[in-house]
Design brief:
The structure is a single chain. The chain is mainly alpha-helical. The protein has a domain of about 55 residues. Helices cover about 65% and strands about 5% of the residues. Strand 1 and strand 2 form a beta hairpin. The protein starts with a helix and ends with a helix. The mean pLDDT is about 90.
């Protein structure tokens, strides 16, 4: 037990040095022309060092925000605004999915076309209709993964109210804070760590494992090369399934940030009282067409 506590505080205080070093030496992990820097990026992308760096940043922002609450409102609004922006953009993937499905049905059943060629910029991209049919899954995955945080901001997720609805204002804020700290942030952190290595195992070779030490990866870097997964479920089917793995990591990252934003909103609303409930909340409002028709 003592060893665990010592290990925790060692990593916690080392996080300050790791953060400063990463900022001062970006080429050590962002210069992908250097394969050693690339394996450092892969290793640190889901490492315990990164976890403690984010913990330090989270604690520092929280403490500073308790002193200057306006700063914490700005951080919260920035995180929620990012979720809203990404969600509103990728929600259009649902429309693209419908339009592409209609086009496939017409081309296949009426015009008996077997493949589609797209080349608006001189580069012709030709794939079988079954490829475009399976690609519809990608649009659906975009909506699910990249609009999840946006839906959270908009209050669109299903909430199971056992006692929350009848709880007092301060009790609700405390429940929301605990829900963020105990459920959203830890679960999304675990999803990120597993999804990160799952992604890179299908992008580069030799395969990289979560149990590999940095020293071993740096020795492997001499053999490192891109090996992007292009295997489909059918001979002429969609063959870019690595994009789904990128979306998985994107989903975990966005929901992790939204969990932090939800914690900050709940904390600020707890401190400032009922008058601050829903402050700066950018929610979409659908106009009531029946009211417009009656007024016209």
């Amino acid at each position: 037990m003592i060893d665990i506590i010592i290990h925790f505080f060692e990593n916690f205080f080392n996080a300050f040095y790791n953060l400063a070093y990463a900022i001062a030496n970006p080429s050590a992990w962002l210069d992908w022309s250097d394969k050693t820097a690339m394996v450092r990026f892969i290793y640190y992308g889901a490492s315990s060092e990164l976890f403690f760096v984010f913990m330090v940043i989270f604690i520092m922002v929280t403490l500073l925000g308790l002193i200057y609450r306006r700063f914490l409102w700005i951080v919260m609004r920035g995180l929620e605004g990012f979720s809203n922006l990404v969600g509103r953009v990728f929600a259009w993937a649902g429309l693209l999915m419908v339009l592409q499905q209609v086009a496939i049905v017409f081309l296949q059943r009426i015009f008996r076309v077997s493949e589609i060629s797209v080349g608006p910029f001189g580069f012709v991209f030709t794939r079988d209709l079954s490829w475009y049919g399976e690609e519809l899954k990608l649009y659906n995955a975009m909506v699910v993964c990249l609009c999840c945080a946006y839906t959270f901001v908009q209050g669109g997720h299903v909430r199971v109210d056992l006692f929350y609805a009848g709880a007092k204002y301060r009790t609700k804020r405390i429940i929301d804070m605990l829900g963020s700290l105990i459920f959203i942030i830890p679960v999304m952190s675990i999803t990120w760590m597993y999804g990160w290595y799952f992604l890179w195992r299908h992008l580069v070779t030799p395969k990289i494992s979560a149990s590999d030490k940095l020293e071993l990866l740096e020795r492997k870097s001499r053999l490192l090369k891109w090996n992007v997964e292009t295997i489909g479920f059918s001979p002429s089917g969609f063959d870019a399934y690595f994009l789904f793995k990128i979306l998985l990591v994107g989903f975990a990252g966005m929901m992790l940030l939204q969990g932090i934003a939800f914690f900050y909103r709940s904390l600020l609303e707890l401190i400032e009282g009922p008058d601050s409930e829903g402050r700066y909340l950018d929610k979409d409002v659908l106009e009531d067409l029946t009211v417009q028709e009656s007024s016209a």
